[in-house]
Amino acid sequence: MLSGFIIIFIQKNEKQMNRKLLLFAFCAASFLHGCQSPPVTYDLLIRNALIYDGSGEAPVQGAIGVNADTIAAIGALPNAKGKNELDAGGMAVSPGFINMLSWATESLIADGRGMSDLKQGITLEVMGEGWSMGPLNQEMKAGTEASQGDIKFKVEWTTLGEYLEYLQQKGISLNVASFIGATTVRIHEIGYEDRPPTAEELEKMQVLVRQAMEEGALGVASALIYAPAFYAKTEELISLCQAAAPYGGRYITHMRSEGNKLLEGVDEVLRISREARLPVEIYHLKAAGKNNWAKMDQVIAKIDKARREGLDVSANMYTYIAGATGLDAAMPPWVQEGGYDVWAKRLQDPEIRKRVKAEMKTDAQDWENLYFSAGSADKLLLSEFKNDTLKKYTGKTLAEVAAIRGVDPEDAAMDLVIQDGTRVGVVYFLMSEDNVRKQIPLPYLSFGSDAAAMANEGVFLKSSTHPRAYGNFARLLGKYVREEKVISLEEAVRKLTSLPAEHLKIKKRGYLKPGYFADIVVFDPATIADKATFEEPHQYATGVNHVFVNGVQVLKNGEHTNAMPGKVVRGPGWKGWK
């Protein structure tokens, strides 16, 4: 009876009680209940856990009871038993980590385990940076299949919601969610032309956004340094965001500039937030190019001022000083108008090549020239080719390939694009380590790999990758938390769990609380570390021992269990929410 009274008291006063008192009360109720009642049996019981619940508060010792896919109890649980039990051995136990910028769109088709992320504690992949896997028309489906590299698949869906359901039905170990890409919507209605949409086209684009939001998209995403997204004016983006706003969507963006026009890029994001009346987030916050590193203080000041004024502004980042994209980011957008085939054809015209070469060597103000921002061709590491005859250059710098071929680096870049049939994958060294440390503590900042979820075997070894695919989250917890103490472990866990879940308005994920989905990570704070390097990126992180997704163990003692319990996680506009 006394334990029941305590539970009723908690329910009536939960909002007024601080976290430690609340946990103490739950433990007291659990203890008293254990003294008076038969043992409580859970499907899963995790004992001897140092619980980091996602709130950012200090951890507490306790146990976690799980029934089916849901956390049933947290506390002392002295009289509890489990059909399956795990002794956490005093290690850290936290909510599953959320990857705010995932490119697992194709890698999960090839291998639903998502090993490089799973072994870092990721339980949710958030996709859709500018390009989303739907909605697609017939021409886009054909183009997607024609442009495939190492991973081959048939496009068996049309809408974004259908793609996400396709992944779930195929079998995945991690949960998945997605924004709808502004680039995808533009290509769907306009193609690759450099022009604004007509009134009728814009209305159709808005309809596509609304449909995606009702299917569970999290909001609208853009990547504005790339053609054809580059051609979209701010007003077009505002219109798309206005379609998403009534559904509770967020606008998330690879800004129009992260370099010379960085401050103007932030201003555009804030304008879209004000005029479309929706929350906004900046993808992979950075100041790219040495001449722009000092601007980070001004960027932070702009965001802080906007937040004080009431705008919901957030950001995410990866924990490296190099980014990864393609050689399209080294060439002006005008030469890419019309899509890859037209771009490659133009690059074979001597006069156009001469102009492109000159612009590549120019500190451009009207487009994002990552080639110039990197400083030299030896700061571009070639990572991904489609053409097997070019794979011998994987892991070499553009400078090295140019020397082998006896041409200037600019000509080498253009030739590689023509010969590979793709934009060619490249790692660009652009950022400052001081800025990385400055950004990590920002209270509104979460983390994303900006990479696929792959395995160090099979098809994935045909190409290189950025080490962030294997190490971004472990690097945060090892290098920046344990070794450099940039932030505390409890704050890092908050930034990996509840913070992104709240930004995305995801229900019942991001915390260890009764009633929440049982996405749970057991890791060793003393050993978690990234092992991947730029020279040898296909190396798993260490220190994550066990991972549960929707109550099912997918990683046991660091090894995959062959379980595929991943589900589609939908945004607040999904028509299925009650």
Helix/strand layout:
Blueprint: H1 2-13, H2 19-36, E1 40-51, E2 60-67, E3 70-75, E4 80-87, E5 92-95, E6 97-99, H3 107-110, H4 115-118, E7 122-127, H5 138-146, H6 160-170, E8 175-178, E9 180-181, H7 182-190, H8 199-214, E10 219-223, H9 234-244, E11 250-254, H10 262-276, E12 280-282, H11 296-308, E13 313-317, E14 322-326, H12 340-346, H13 350-360, H14 370-374, E15 380-384, H15 398-405, H16 409-420, E16 425-429, H17 433-439, E17 445-447, H18 468-483, H19 489-496, H20 498-503, E18 520-523, E19 544-549, E20 552-556, E21 559-560
Parallel strand pairs: 1-4, 1-5, 6-7, 7-8, 9-10, 10-11, 11-12, 12-13, 13-17
Antiparallel strand pairs: 1-2, 2-3, 5-18, 14-16, 15-16, 18-19, 19-20, 20-21
Summary, kept brief:
The protein is of the alpha/beta class. It is built from 20 helices and 21 strands.
List keywords for this structure.
578 residues, alpha/beta, nine-stranded mixed beta sheet, six-stranded parallel beta sheet, 20 helices, 21 strands, disordered N terminus
Mind telling me the C-alpha Rg? 24 Å
- Spans of at least 5 consecutive residues with low confidence: 1-8
Q: What is the rounded distance between the termini? A: 34 Å
Major sheet summary line: 9 strands, mixed
Strand content: 15-25%
What does this structure look like?
- It is globular and about 85 Å long.
- Helix 1 (2-13) packs antiparallel against helix 2 (19-36), helix 7 packs across helix 8 and helix 15 (398-405) packs across helix 16.
- The strands form four sheets. Strands 1, 2, 3, 4, 5, 18, 19, 20 and 21 form a nine-stranded mixed β-sheet that branches. The chain has a six-stranded parallel β-sheet with strand order 9-10-11-12-13-17. The protein has a three-stranded parallel β-sheet with strand order 6-7-8.
- The model is unreliable at 1-8 (pLDDT under 50).
- A hairpin with a 2-residue loop joins strand 20 and strand 21 (559-560).
- By secondary structure, it is an alpha/beta fold.
- It contains 20 helices and 21 strands.
